[in-house]
Design goal:
Elements: H1 17-26, H2 30-41, E1 48-58, E2 61-71, E3 75-84, E4 94-103, E5 109-115, E6 130-136, E7 141-147, E8 161-167, E9 170-175, H3 176-179, H4 181-198
Antiparallel strand pairs: 1-2, 2-3, 3-4, 5-6, 6-9, 7-8
Length: 200
């Protein structure tokens, strides 16, 4: 009877110390978030990362949300964790954590919007104190439709609809005033490295 050979699974690579510290600073169940990110990364090493935590207010309920973006040589790993509303009697706190792994070849765009107050006083190289980082990879397509019109103001014919299809898979707002200079610089560095990776 022949023996069956088993391939050993590749060892899981520990998260970089700076990514672990960023997850811990965010303060949203750091052990859970770190484990979820590490499980999604598997044996790949992190080239660059971005951790973004935000708190929202829904009526009388405070909800926390964390997003971790981790870039490897071949993938963009996105992890979300947030509070989950459990309406049952005697409910306990529940968190949900979701990861998505996107091949770099599927990332369609990296868009940076710089918010610059008092542009008349802009100093070269400063790039403002707030950005919005938008990443697109085709997971969500939004269709905006409006009634079509013509240039004749007296025309009452039905011209159907016109619209645009836009991809807006994830959008993060990072402010130096709210999150610190280091968070803004990390976001800019991550955006540059991701942009360079998808251009290869």
């Amino acid at each position: 009877m022949g023996s069956t050979s088993h391939r050993a699974a590749a060892p899981v690579v520990p998260l970089p110390d700076d990514l672990t510290r960023a997850i811990e600073r965010a303060g949203y169940y750091p052990a859970l978030v770190a484990d979820v990110v590490q499980a999604a990364l598997g044996h790949e090493e992190v080239v660059s990362h971005l951790v973004h935590q935000e708190t929202t207010f829904d009526h009388d309920v405070v909800r926390r949300h964390i997003t971790v973006l981790a870039l490897t040589e071949t993938r963009l790993v996105i992890a979300h964790a947030d509070d989950h509303a459990d309406e049952r009697t005697g409910h306990e706190e529940v968190a949900t954590a979701t990861t998505e792994s996107v091949p770099l070849s599927a990332v369609r765009g990296v868009m940076l919007t710089h918010v610059v107050p008092k542009p008349q006083d802009y100093r070269p190289g400063s790039l403002g104190r707030e950005i919005t980082l938008t990443l697109g990879w085709g997971a969500v397509n939004r269709v905006d439709l409006l009634p079509a019109t013509c240039s004749d103001p007296s025309c009452d014919a039905d011209h159907g609809f016109e619209g645009t299809i836009s991809s807006d898979d994830i959008s993060l707002r990072i402010s130096a005033d709210a999150e610190g200079e280091a968070a803004l610089e990390q976001a800019l560095t991550f955006a540059r490295e991701l942009s360079a990776s998808i251009g290869r």
